[in-house]
Design goal:
By secondary structure, the protein is of the alpha+beta class. It has two helices and seven strands. The strands form two sheets. Strands 3, 4, 5 and 7 form a four-stranded antiparallel sheet that branches. Strands 1-2-6 form a three-stranded antiparallel sheet, with no helix packed on it. A hairpin with a 4-residue loop joins strand 3 and strand 4. The chain is elongated and about 65 Å long. The termini are far apart. 15% of the residues are buried.
Length: 115
């Protein structure tokens, strides 16, 4: 007969140490600096999103003094997500990135990724 497996004391200790170490890794100085850099770079464009049910669109304008890039991410219901082409905007420029859900229940959410 097969015996049910039980966690040994050592396995439990290792799991608790790993769980306790996760917050330390999440706020490590290098990661924190990278997260701050992403937060500074992100959110510089003025964007609106819309959908017709299967297509998602991101309309963005660059109101900064430098170039910025963006693309649309369409979260599809019961289907893999879709991403639009990256668009590079010069200062003052406007463009649209679009993507389509080719199946599932259609668009659940339309997001903008800046990079």
């Amino acid at each position: 007969m097969n015996k049910p497996r039980r966690l040994t004391g050592l396995a439990l200790k290792l799991a608790s140490v790993a769980a306790a170490a996760l917050p330390v890794f999440a706020i490590a100085p290098g990661a924190s600096a990278a997260q701050q850099a992403l937060a500074t770079a992100a959110g510089v464009l003025d964007c609106t999103t819309d959908t017709d049910g299967y297509w998602g669109h991101a309309h963005c304008t660059n109101n900064t003094g430098g170039e910025a890039s963006f693309r649309v991410r369409v979260v599809c219901g019961m289907w893999p997500d879709a991403w639009g082409d990256w668009k590079k905007l010069a200062p003052g420029a406007t463009d649209v990135s679009s993507a389509r859900c080719f199946g599932g229940t259609g668009v659940g959410k339309v997001l903008v990724e800046e990079g």
